[in-house]
Amino acid sequence: GLYDNLQKYDLPKPEAIFSINFFKEKPAAFYELAREMWPGNFAPTIAHAFIRLLEMKGVLLRCYTQNIDSLEELAGVSPERIVAAHGNFSSARGINTGKAVPIEEVRDAVLK
Q1: Comparing C-alpha atoms, which of 96, 79, 99 is closest to residue 39?
Q2: Which of 24, 57, 62, 86 is catalytic?
Q3: For residues 94 and 101, is the Cβ–Cβ distance under 8 A?
Q4: pLDDT per residue over 66-85, tens digit each?
Q5: Are 75 and 42 a contacting pair, CB within 8 Å?
Q6: Would you say 91 and 100 are in contact if contact means Cβ atoms under 8 Å apart?
Q7: 73-81, Cβ contacts within 8 angstroms, sequence gap of 24 or more
Q8: Which residues, 6 or more positions from 84, have their beta carbon under 8 angstroms from its beta carbon?
């Protein structure tokens, strides 16, 4: 999984890549990982298409996911049905302000 592939970032522990304190000290590791995982680098799978089909049939109430890749949304699942337990690439908020930041602005910063 994801945590098995983080050695190249020289982290104190694998979870550090998602720690706000580590990000404030050394944001480069997170930005590099985010560049690799940014939507568009991977395509939705047949499982994502099935979730979309469930929504189209009117039987999907919510789509709970621990994945941060936004592939459910790329497959066409309505954002209001998706509950991203660990966040995803569909929205962002400022660290200090808590205010919404346009995702295009975040994308531009990450993909530099």
Answers
A1: 79
A2: 86
A3: yes
A4: 988 899 999 999 999 999 99
A5: no
A6: yes
A7: 73/39, 74/39, 74/43, 74/44, 74/48, 75/44, 75/48, 75/49, 75/51, 76/52, 77/48, 77/51, 77/52, 81/55
A8: 65, 67, 68, 70, 90
| Euclidean distance between CA atoms 87 and 91, whole angstroms | 8
48 as an active site residue: the answer is no
| pLDDT at res. 43 | 94
Residues (pLDDT < 70) of the chain are none
Do residues 55 and 73 make contact, with C-beta atoms less than 8 angstroms apart?
Answer: no
pTM above 0.85, yes or no: no
